[in-house]
Structure formats: structure tokens, C-alpha cells
Amino acid sequence: MVTVVHAPRAPEVAALLAAHPLADHVRPGPEPGGTVVHFFDSAPITADDLDAFRPAEVIIAGPATGTVDLAAARARGVAVLDTPGLAAHSVAEYALGLTLALMRALPSTDTQQWTPRFGSEVAGSTLGVVGTGDVGRRLTTLARGLGMTVLGWSPRSTVAGLSLDEVLSRSDAVSVHLRLAAETEGLIDADRLRAMKPTAVLINTARSAIVDSVALREALAAGTIAGAAIDVFDAEPVPPTDPWWRAENVIVSPHAAWMTIQAADRFLDAALQYAVHRDRRAVRTVLPATKMHAS
Asked: Is the N-terminal amide bond of 237 cis, ω within 30° of 0?
């Protein structure tokens, strides 16, 4: 049988789980040696949770980053799997929406005052996509449908042989879609921000550490770039006293790029299909099962 540990924070996800065709296979309590399904947007699974549930494996409905104590799982011989990438279209749509909002100056009009502002059309503009994986490719398709020219860059391959600095300097909007790794941490730093046009905007729906947040604050304050939309932060939720909330040329988004009913449903379905039917088509092994360490 399947155990679901930790109720999802969003009631919409709990409703999706209750209505799922495989819901009858779910048990609310521990099933030692069984499979635990964990929705990634819930409270993380701790060592105490693993001791209470004593599972053979944990399958994350969504990406595993930050959702389970991997060291504790390894020490207890518990396998950890996840279902990444199933929100790619949702994230791509959201990134495009943030791009439209910035280029059409929507943040400056949301002031409860009648203050119309000139913006820029996206048709005919250039979008730089930093990270050309699944999300980046989907965003490219969407942006081209609006008449944008797209320049792409990733650490492992480039489109049209362009360097990152060339993509940044030629783009009217830059959207970040990289995985966080040693080679990408701090990649968008003060020098890279200075390479951008002063009229350009930056969108980050990937990981906060890819963009130097101090350098970004300074670039926005100095007018080095025109605006930014940020969906990922060093500390979440963003404290109410954080200066980001008071920045006029910034959209503060609550890590919501993935949040569509369709994406949540895909996450849950992939995890349950694996847990019940061993369907691995959307599943990745994060930590293989191991023999428990001697105590």
C-alpha cells in the first residue's frame, strides 16, 4: 500500500489527491516497508518522519530539491525518487507573463492611482533565454509565437554560437532557466548585469543563487537595467520588511511559476502511477536503496 506523508499546503492539491483514480491505494498512516508519496510543496520529510514511517522508498511528487533529508534517507537505506520536469510548460508560461508585465510597465501602473505609463511591445523585441532545457525550449516556442526573436545560451551548448555576454547585451528581456550547480551559482553577477541594456529586464524563475541578489539590487537602483521579476529568493517567504517589496521596478512573485492545477495533477499522477503500478516513465532515481548503516 501507499502512504502519503504530510498534507500538501495547498487545499487544491489535497483535492486532486482525493479525486485521483488511485486514491483507494493510499493509506493515511505508516506502512513499514512500503512506499511514501510526498508532494514537494509540503513540509520537508525529516529523519523523524522516516523513523515514524519506516518506508522502503519515498517518491516525491515533483522535484526532490529540499523536500527530504537525503542524508537521513541514505543512513536508513531508504530509496528516494522524484518526478521532475512536469511543470515545464507552467513555468514557461509564467516567465512569459512576467516578461509581458515588465515590458508593458504593469508594476508601475499597479499603484491605485491613475498613472498610465508607456511600455514596449514584445513583438519585434529580443528575448534572451539563459538555460535551453525543457522550460527554455517551451518558452522559446511561446515567445516566437508573439513575434519575439529568441537568443539562447546554456553552459553546455549555444545557439548560433553566441556567448552568454552576447546574449545578455543583445536582449531586451533575459529569462533565467538553469539548474543550480557549481558552474551556475552566481553566474549573473554585477559584470553580467552591466552587460545588459539599460532598458532591459531580467526574469528569474529558476534558482535564486544563480543571480547575485546584491548585485541585482544595486543594478536596479542605479538604472543599470530597467526592471526585474523574481520568483525565487534566498530566503522564502520574503519577509515583509525586505526592501524587495518597496522596489518600484520589481515584481516579487511567491515562488509560484510552477503553480497550475495541471502541473500539480501531473506531479501527483506520476508519483502514484509509480507507487502503485511501478510506472517509471516520469520518475528519476535521486538516491538508490542501500543497506542500512550499522547503529
From this structure: yes
